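User: Before I run my own analysis I want an independent prediction to cross-check against. Here's the chain; please return only the structure tokens and, at the end, one sentence I can use as a sanity check.
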Amino acid sequence: MTTKKKQKQAYWRRRSIEYERDWTKRCEETIEKRLARYYQKALIAIKDDILKLYGTFAKDNGIDFDEARRLLSSREFKEWRFTMQEYLQQIADGNAGLQRELNTLAMRPRISRLEKLYSETLQELDKLGRDVNQSINERFSD
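Assistant: Structure tokens:
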């Protein structure tokens, strides 16, 4: 084989490797960006739901948003002190302070569930990114 022919083969081999490397990078970036967008949309939707619940709670209780967050995040009103019937009876008897306690106790699990879902989605997004990256690298290196 002549030197010129060897040089051509080496050139095309390098070009092929560079092309494959570029193609792999573009594929990874496209897939990762698309998946990240899907997860970002999900995270935004969950966060919006959480904020709506805080807003509804604030409105229903005649307090501002920050006070709603403080109430729902604090240790105050963490446990049910009465049965539902007892709460309703005492509220009907004029104990208006129990209405806020009842509302807080009812709203807290809904918000906690969404915040947990938000946190788990963030963790899954991170894990997915690492898994996709590893999988793409393994497949394209073959």
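Sanity check: Residues 3-61 form the longest helix (59 residues).
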